[in-house]
Every structure is written in structure tokens, then in C-alpha cells.
Amino acid sequence: MPLWDDYQELLKSPFADMANIGGRYGGAISAACFLSRFTKKFDWAHLDIAGTAWKSGADKGATGRPVPLLTHYLLQRAGKLN
């Protein structure tokens, strides 16, 4: 994911040291730019799950959809699953 300076600019804020949301477009990239400011010495990944995390309409609310997949992956990586 590109972390170009143009996207870092989206995090400027007149009220705080930085904003935690960049705007309508480039949301996944600006979120990754935000995280990059705190993870300089670590390998990391930004998982953009916003599209699957919420339901709208009569069933409005959180889906929890990414949780089982991520839990299974992490347990497998930790050697807790075959």
C-alpha cells in the first residue's frame, strides 16, 4: 500500500497533532498512514475491514465477520491449531 506524502497530508488537523481519519477518498491508505506514525520500528499490516464490518438497513450493526477469520489465522500462526 502506498504511504506517499500526499496521503500523509490528509492527517493534518487544525485542532490536534493529527487527525485519525483522512477524508472520503483514500480511507484505507490514510488509515495506514496514521498507523505508520506509531509503528516505525515494527513490521505491521493494516487490514481494511470497514466494508465487511457493518450491516445497514433493518439489521444495522456490527457483523463481527472478520473476527473468526483473524482469530483462526492468529491461532494457526501461534501453533495452537493444526
Automatic annotation (TrEMBL):
EC number, as in UniProt: 3.4.11.1
PANTHER family, alphabetized: CYTOSOL AMINOPEPTIDASE, LEUCINE AMINOPEPTIDASE-RELATED
Pfam families attached to this UniProt entry: Peptidase_M17
Entry's family note: Belongs to the peptidase M17 family.
This protein's encoding gene: pepA_21
UniProt GO molecular function: manganese ion binding; metalloaminopeptidase activity
Protein name, as recorded: Cytosol aminopeptidase
Keyword tags: Aminopeptidase, Hydrolase, Protease
Naturally occurring in which organism (per UniProt): bioreactor metagenome
